[in-house]
Amino acid sequence: MRAVVQRVRWAEVEVDGRVVGRIEQGALVLLGVHQSDTEADARWLAQKLAHLRFFEDEQGKLNLSVLEVGGAMLVVSNFTLYGDCRKGRRPSFAESAPYERGETLYCQFCDDLRAEGVHVQMGVYGASMQVRLQNDGPVTLIVETPSTIE
């Protein structure tokens, strides 16, 4: 799994002209699911992001997690995170999980975040979505599961 995590003051996602998810302080998570990802990968990534310290403490150091600041996460599926642009001019998405498997693991990841105590809002898997946000910092991280990196 690959997540692009942006610290935000607020973020929302809209589908067909209707806001389907909105958060205040927290993180926007763009989530890509690899064809080889498993439930264990979803759990690992959820635990990592729930406790990752990318919010500032009183001294301005990145030392607090989303849980510690009382923030939330807006999770938006994004299969294009596995777009391979090394050859030609059109990205290949062959590494992205098939639709059904991707949707299952996307939902599992969100459930695992909730199990860690994170307030979660979601986009609509596979839909065309418009995402709006106010970036905070900006702080943007790319986090991948160990099995994806190896």
What's the overall average pLDDT, rounded? 96
Number of strands: 8
Low-pLDDT stretches = none
Helix content: 10-25%
Q: Let me know the largest β-sheet.
A: 6 strands, mixed
Strand content: 35-45%
Report the structural category. Answer: alpha/beta
List the secondary-structure elements in sequence, H or E. EEEHEEEHEEH
Taken from the alpha-carbon principal axes, the silhouette is globular
Question: Could you explain how this protein is built, in words?
Answer:
Strands 1, 2, 3, 6, 7 and 8 form a 6-stranded mixed beta sheet that branches. The protein has a two-stranded antiparallel sheet with strand order 4-5. The chain is 23% helix and 38% strand. It is globular, with a radius of gyration of 15 Å. The protein is of the alpha/beta class and 150 residues long.
Q: How is the topology of this model organized?
A:
Layout: E1 2-15, E2 18-23, E3 26-32, H1 39-51, E4 55-56, E5 62-64, E6 72-77, H2 99-115, E7 119-122, E8 130-144, H3 146-149
Parallel strand pairs: 3-6, 6-7
Antiparallel strand pairs: 1-2, 1-3, 1-8, 4-5
Helix pairs in contact: 1-2
Short description:
The protein is α/β, with parallel strands linked by helices. It has helices at residues 39-51, 99-115, 146-149; strands at 2-15, 18-23, 26-32, 55-56, 62-64, 72-77, 119-122, 130-144.
